[in-house]
Sequence to fold (445 residues):
Amino acid sequence: MAPKAQNIPLQSTLGMKYPTYRDLRLKNTDIWLEGKRIDDGAEGLWRIHDDLYDLNDFIDKHPGGAFWLKMTKGTDITEAFEVHHISDSPEKLLPKYWKRKAKTSRNSPFSFKDDGFYRTLKRKVRPLLKDLPKRDSRWSNFYSDIMAFGLFLFGVLATRYIDFYFATICGILMALVTIAGHNYMHRKDNWRMYYPDLSLLQSREFRMFHIFSHHLYTNTIADLEISLHEPIMEFLPKRKSFVHRYLSIIYAPFYWLTLNHIGVIKRILIFLVLKRTSHFGFHDLVSFFPLLVMYVLGEQPFWIAFKMWFTATLVASLYFNLIGFTAAHHHPKIFHDGDKPRPEIPFDWGLGQLDAVMDRFEIDGSHFLILTNFGNHALHHFFPTLDHGQLKYLEPVFQETLKEFNIELRKTTIPTLMLGMFKQITNADPNSDPPELYLKSQKRN
Fold:
């Protein structure tokens, strides 16, 4: 059954075409990709910049795994190609698969010029890759795995002793493991990428909307991590109802409490209403593995195990979404589509990322906190395939490049970003200055 598009309620100040199917209430990333295939002018092939490539023969040879190419066939993968390949080897391989020039202009406000910020930074990072210590990746694995073990341990204890304190600890560990699982999602298929499923956050869906959409088109109308939560939470600065302006700060935490569970219900509805099954898979079984372990080892009736597990998943959903929504991207001083953009469009993708992010002082310097709080967020967006623990080694060249281009990475505190997120969902007044002028005015004040 083909989805039907709804009326267009707003225009992108970045000049982006309004995404097909964006306003469907019942949608997932597969439907979003269908709309992207309509909008991108890729003609059933893979579009990179203004060229079309036939990568069918390369799918199974792709070092990063076949998943990425299979899912993005028929779309513009320019941003994904640029950001997920630090080496210049893939670019040298492209001519072999070139088919023809695209007939339409790109539906993106971003550029990747050789002398621009992002490609300059990437060139400086390349020689560092061969010397990145492996021990940091091993520490990430250790932290992730020990937390996963802990959630099962406390889940069993919660069931055996019918203890909600243990269930709460289990839920917190579920959330931390889910965030840590984000560290493994940009890579070739691996078993740790299923960690988010333990908290009912479907890893396949998370992987797709987070990587194909949010990471590439952050805070724009093409960012699924914004549109998936509309109209309950409205992050873009536009005219908002009384409920959004004055009540969303009250009901948002209750939404987070059940958001992972809403995702499960939505998947079922998409199957029942739209007759789609592509989003079901092994990951759905992983979601209920903690419940199975709690029942088998908890030595209590099933309903007790279910009660403890459900409590843990509520805690996990609340904790994960609290961190996720307040980690880096939402504050009235952070660019959102609807604010006045940089004057020259297209502009460097890296500058767009810096406009749409703030990092947090408290997270710096701790491998564990970075792994479990979406830390080093700007560098992670620039180099998502690297382990979170390795990003610190890029800091010197990052700062050098920022200085070279006379720009800065904004940093603030955790409470400021948390408060800023609530301000943003009630904000109906777009910034009238473009980001670079807005930053200068903030400094003067």
